[in-house]
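Notes to self, non-specific serine/threonine protein kinase:
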Amino acid sequence: MIAGRYRLRRRIGGGAMGVVWLADDELLGRTVAAKQLLLAPNLSERDAEQARKRSAREARLAARLQHHNAITVFDVPDDDGMPVLIMEYLPSQSLAEVLQARGRLPPREVARIGSHAAAALAAAHAAGIVHRDVKPGNILLGEDGTAKITDFGISRAADDGTLTGSGGFAGTPAFLAPEAARGEKPSAASDVYSLGATLYAIVEGRFPYGDTENQMALLYAAAAGRFSPPEHAGPLTDVLLRMMRFKPEERPTMAELAVELARLADPARHRRRRPLLYAGAGAVVLVAAIVAAVLLLTSNRGTQSLAVTGTPSPAPATTEPPSPVTTTTDSSSPAPPPSTAAAPSYSQAVSEYYALVPGQLDAGWARLGPALQAQGKGSYQSWWGQISNIVVTGAPHLVGDAVVEVTVDFTKNGTRYRETHHLGMITRDGQPLINTDKAVSSTIIG
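result:
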């Protein structure tokens, strides 16, 4: 029994640094997973104290991240001076176990798993957290097919000091990004590479740097970014090669990958209409003009919707809208430049907001301006309590004076929606806030 509340039942996983138990929370009557840190018997007191700090730090980091594709930390009780992580229990197999049991997986299934992991990591990056050990063993595949990322034990937040120790490196050599293998500071782009290497392994059935158990040889290959091109990835090939580019600045962001991988996993849901793809230039201009007029008329209604506030949205359509309405990440159509000094932070503020909801509603509420808070916090919390699986599918970007456009997918009462919103931004005491919310489109997508 731990902390007079958590009764350990049986061991379900672990490694050199810790052991994970299936446990009962006897206070709330639910099944949880309990992760205990294991200390080597020959550790010095200084190293043992470092390990305790690292474990406590893991708990703080993991508790900061609330996302439906990340394992949730519920509690961190003390057990004879050692912190124990009490976590969500997910009946699952790790991707490492799935790969060993089934062999390589089909590209579209890999894309679906990758989109789940990328969504959770994008939320972590928005919160300033870099995972640093993305690998098949740290992605769990639930019985319903949902993938969740776990083990932020060697993660590093942008505002925390590192506890990995001098001269050490964090991560598993077989999945390290080149810069991490060279001892440089890992970044969000390093996580992108490691997720690419993970997806490579499960779609190819082999490790990117070869199957050798020689750790130094793996580090050498990782530092050089040397891997064989994928042979079985099919439609995933291009995205894998971009994720595993040698230079970090040339890799896509995790938020972009979550959208792209979701489209690869289910192309029918995300397809564009052929007339828009093959129409002549004049027809395209006409369609764009019509769409712009519709958006202007819709936005002038002043309708507020769930993207921020949870108030009613316009009646949804039952088919996908034309791509100019829903596709907001096309680099060939850049957003207008900001017109105020505070504007460059507005898009980032919106990204950070969506990394908080619906898991951290108090923090989300604090990101709203007075016009939206006037609706009342109880109404805000009640609405968001009905929402799950929210993913930003159109990256936030400026479309006018202190106005950010964003597109989100979410599930409510078993129905999947896509909505595009224009968010009016203000700055108070140096903090960007979302002050107004106008829905410009709402579509049922599943």
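- Residues 45-64 form the longest helix (20 residues).
- The first strand starts at residue 6 and ends at 14.
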